[in-house]
Known about the structure:
The protein has 139 residues and is an alpha/beta fold.
Amino acid sequence: MQLNTYLNYGGNCEQAFRFYEEHLGGGITMLMRHGEQPAAQNVPPEWKNAVLHARMTLGGTEIFGADIPPDRFQPMRSAYLSLTLNSIDEAERVYDLLKDGGQIFMKMEETFFASRFAMLRDRFGTSWMILGPRAGMPG
């Protein structure tokens, strides 16, 4: 059995995945647009470049994503991608990248369980927990 996370976007899946690839060290392993599927002649022109399915390796796991019609898209709620970083500097760097244009739910700070912890939604609609583990505490 394998469990993967599937992220839906309101038209910016490729932009989000390219951002995560460039800034978080991920790697896009597959990206297919609606206009590249076998029945592409049936795809409305405004959907030809929308992402039908994408895969990315990130942080030792694989995430999937796709664009959905903007009227059905809602930013992530009550679910987070939890990203554990190896240093305070790296946690701060990632926090600064992801908060730009996003919404902060809990600002980056030291907690009893972490040297750094934050919760936010990035500009693409993905919600994140950023964790810099405290020595001796599980990540």
